[in-house]
Write a structure and sequence with these properties.
Number of domains: 2
CATH superfamily of the largest domain: Aminoglycoside phosphotransferase (APH), C-terminal lobe
CATH topology of the largest domain: Aminoglycoside 3'-phosphotransferase, Chain: A, domain 2
Protein name: Phosphotransferase family protein
Structural class: alpha+beta
InterPro entries: ACAD10_11_N, AGP_Transferase, Aminoglycoside_PTrfase, Kinase-like_dom_sf
Helix content: 25-40%
Number of strands: 9
Domain Aminoglycoside phosphotransferase: 13-246
CATH architecture of the largest domain: Alpha-Beta Complex
GO molecular function, one term: transferase activity
Keywords: Transferase
Number of helices: 11
CATH class of the largest domain: Alpha Beta
Strand content: 5-15%
Distance between the termini: 54 Å
Order of helices and strands: EEEHEEHHHEEEEHHHHHHH
Shape: globular
Length: 335
């Protein structure tokens, strides 16, 4: 921090922050300024440092764009400074996650909750409107062929789970039908942009004062791809009273009053610069792809549980969510 020219002095009010198991978050104050430090877990994984470098680059690129996100203060890509860990400092987010808690006025006002849902789509459209090249993210991902490789990429991932001892293979009704439908209906027109990669309510922080999105967080899956997949991801994970997804969305899902899928798409489409060159009429395809991809990702934990590398109860839970996602994908297709 001293080398970056940041104000010096003792570290005060140091405390850990909750928010995921993959990385460590520490909030502190120094010389009257608040910071959040983000680094990998105590036992670093193979790609953790590379992911942290990418996150820092994205947050720096988003500064000045109007996208609600933490702002990068300084990054340390040098692994020797903190015992092998890359880390960065960012601005704190003053807000709450609605899948964990729901304070007033949000809990008691259905109109506020409805607007929270619409603002989830609007915050996403602000990201879709960013010119990634102008923001300094040229070369950050591989947009060429992005849509064409999605189905084969995730079927290969599913096949790889077979290497885990004890995993009997995927028991996912509708898997082949959904994969075939995706290959046959792939959109022919799309425009590359910044893809968050894991856009759902658990990765949003809301203002304590109202329905505004205070920040989109957890950028570890970010790349350059088709931003409409983020919108599809939001639809794939959106709380629905007709299935288990409402309870999985925590207090906000239980409280209800949220907008419909159609209203979310309409809110996203309010920004012409987010939808220009993108085919919103194909949004069902993106929602089905999101169900397909997320379901396969979650099935990986079920496979690891069969191999004794994850708790059995966690594997059972995530397998049930995978089955629910594929049922939702089939409902999207049928509609």
């Amino acid at each position: 921090m001293d080398g970056e020219g940041l104000p010096g002095g003792p570290f005060e009010d140091v405390r850990p922050l909750a928010g995921g198991t993959q990385n460590t978050l520490i909030r502190f104050r120094r010389a009257g300024r608040d910071y959040v430090l983000r680094r990998g877990p105590s036992h670093l994984r193979a790609r953790t440092n590379d992911v942290l470098r990418r996150e820092a680059r994205v947050l720096a690129a988003l500064d000045g764009t109007g996208v609600p996100a933490p702002r990068l203060i300084a990054a340390c890509p040098d692994e020797s400074v903190m015992g092998g860990a890359v880390f960065y400092l960012m601005t704190p987010v003053e807000g709450f996650n609605p899948t964990v808690t729901l304070p007033e006025p949000h809990a008691g006002d259905e109109s506020v909750r409805h607007e929270m849902g619409l603002n989830a789509a609007r915050a996403l459209s602000s990201l879709g409107a960013v010119d990634h090249d102008a923001a300094g993210l040229r070369g950050f991902g591989r947009p060429a062929g992005f849509l064409e490789r999605q189905v084969s990429r995730w079927l290969s991932e599913l096949d790889s789970y077979g290497k885990l001892d004890g995993y009997p293979g995927p028991d996912i009704p509708g898997l082949d039908d959904v994969a075939r439908w995706l290959e046959e209906r792939r959109p022919l027109r799309w425009r590359p942009g910044i893809l968050h990669g894991d856009y759902h309510l658990a990765n949003l922080m809301y203002s304590f004062d109202g329905p505004e999105v205070a920040a989109i967080v957890d950028w570890e899956m970010c790349t350059i791809g088709d931003p409409l997949l983020d919108l599809g991801w939001l639809l794939a994970t959106w709380p629905d009273r007709s299935d288990d997804s409402a309870s999985l969305a925590g207090p906000l899902g239980e409280a209800g009053g949220l907008p419909s899928a159609g209203e979310l798409v309409a809110a996203y489409a309010e920004r012409p610069d987010a939808v220009a060159g993108r085919d919103l009429s194909s949004i069902t395809w993106y929602a089905v792809l999101a169900c397909f991809k997320l379901g396969i990702v979650l099935e990986g934990t079920n496979a690891r549980a069969h191999a004794g590398k994850a708790p059995r109860e966690t594997g059972d839970l995530l397998h049930s969510i995978t089955l629910g996602l594929f049922r939702r994908a089939q409902r999207f297709i049928a509609s």
